[in-house]
Amino acid sequence: MRVLLRLLGVLVIGVVIAVAGTVMHRSSQPWGLVLALALVFTSGVGVRAALGRAATLFYLAVLLLTLGGLSRYGPGGDVLIPGGDHWGWYWLGGASAVILLVLALPGSWFSDRPLRRRVTG
């Protein structure tokens, strides 16, 4: 049950970050995009530190699926991430690259084990 609740939490975080970043990346270019990518990075680090690499992969999948849904045309013909706009491509590619960077970081950075101290003398 605990694992399902954690995955549900990652699902909610992924959807909220994707929606907030989609709105933010177009707000004031280029700083909206920079802030949106920073938001993806910090949430990715939080997921990796709290739940591990597998949950971060799930976060990446949720983020990409949500961004894919937001880049589709709605019933009225509106789209939040237009394909003809380079800022939308920067947002899609940048979010993926940032999470892949978080996955590539060494696992020791996220460990709770104490560091070994060197004995001097």
Description:
By secondary structure, the chain is mainly alpha-helical. The chain is built from four helices and no strands. Helix 2 runs antiparallel to helix 3 and helix 3 runs antiparallel to helix 4. The longest helix is centred in the N-terminal third of the chain and has 23 residues.
Rg on CA atoms, Å: 17 Å
In round numbers, the mean pLDDT is 89
Distance between the termini: 51 Å
Helical proportion?
A: 55-70%
Q: How are helices and strands ordered from N to C?
A: HHHH
Number of helical elements = 4
Percent range for β-strand residues: under 5%
Query: How many beta-strand segments?
Result: 0
- Principal-axis shape: elongated
Global structural class: mainly alpha
Biggest sheet layout: none
Low-confidence stretches: none
Topology:
Layout: H1 2-24, H2 31-51, H3 53-70, H4 86-104
What's the short version?
With 121 residues, this protein is mainly alpha-helical. It is 67% helix and 0% strand. Helix 2 (31-51) runs antiparallel to helix 3.
Task: Give keywords.
about 0% strand; mainly alpha; about 120 residues
